[in-house]
Amino acid sequence: DAKTTQPPSMDCAEGRAANLPCNHSTISGNEYVYWYRQIHSQGPQYIIHGLKNNETNEMASLIITEDRKSSTLILPHATLRDTAVYYCIVRGSGSSNTGKLIFGQGTTLQVKP
Amino acid sequence: KAGVTQTPRYLIKTRGQQVTLSCSPISGHRSVSWYQQTPGQGLQFLFEYFSETQRNKGNFPGRFSGRQFSNSRSEMNVSTLELGDSALYLCASGHTGPSTDTQYFGPGTRLTVL
Asked: If you measure CA to CA, which chain A residue comes closest to B96?
């Protein structure tokens, strides 16, 4: 599975958009980009995933660059409850099956009033 | 639809004891994975079960074991507990497995070894 690189921490003002970047320069064609978040001492919560196209759901938007080497998770109107550690994971499929999710250190997002 | 449930939520044990943790996946999910989370090592994969068979295993000693039942519920067991086993133990479930579909996590079991 491809390795991901995320900034260790970011701040965002409440009500503003939070843009969390992730680099995955070694991603291969059949690998998906997944985002999870973990609020203090709870289980990771699935947010969104994508392969090539940009994706949007009720929680967030995922923008994947055309070369797929990086992506950005966007929380459009951050609230204090969005303060969490955000993990970007590249998940293999088919022949790159490793049977597990590989979590890095993630980005700690602090939303401030 | 109910989420992944884990019992117990908190557990305190002493060194040398053994412990069994339980995970009930989302209804219809057949894959259950277990992870250990510690401040120093982060989230690390323990093992994954699918249809009562262990398909993948992480780099943990044999004191860590698991099983899955016909209803997809899973248990993990840690024998001869060590202080370093203190951690948040998480399970995740999915339809087909971590490599092919979305995994959903439970709230975790916080194990403290004294």
From this structure: A99
With 0-12 CB in 10 A as exposed, 13-18 as middle and 19+ as buried, what is B58? middle
Res A96: pLDDT: 45
Residue range A24-74, pLDDT digits in tens = 998 888 889 999 999 988 999 999 999 998 999 999 999 999 999 999 999
- Beta carbons of B42 and A105 less than 8 Å apart: yes
pLDDT of A91 reads 83
Taking a contact as any Cβ pair under 8 Å apart, which residues of chain A between 10 and 69 contact chain B? 34, 36, 41-46, 49
Q: Between β-strands B109-113 and B10-13, what pairing exists: parallel, antiparallel or unpaired?
A: parallel
Instruction: Assess whether pLDDT exceeds 80 at residue A92.
Output: no
Residues 6 or more apart whose CB falls under 8 angstroms from that of A70 comprise A21, A22, A23, A24, A25, A64
Across the interface, whether the CB atoms of B107 and A105 are under 8 A apart is answered no
Q: Would you call A101 and B33 a contact, using CB atoms and an 8 Å cutoff?
A: yes
- Residue keyed to tokens 């289980």: A43
Q: Which residue of A has its CA nearest to B39?
A: A105
Q: What is the pLDDT of residues B21-79, one digit of tens each?
A: 999 999 999 999 999 999 888 899 999 999 999 998 999 999 999 999 999 999 999 99
CA-to-CA distance for B17 and B78, rounded, in angstroms? 9
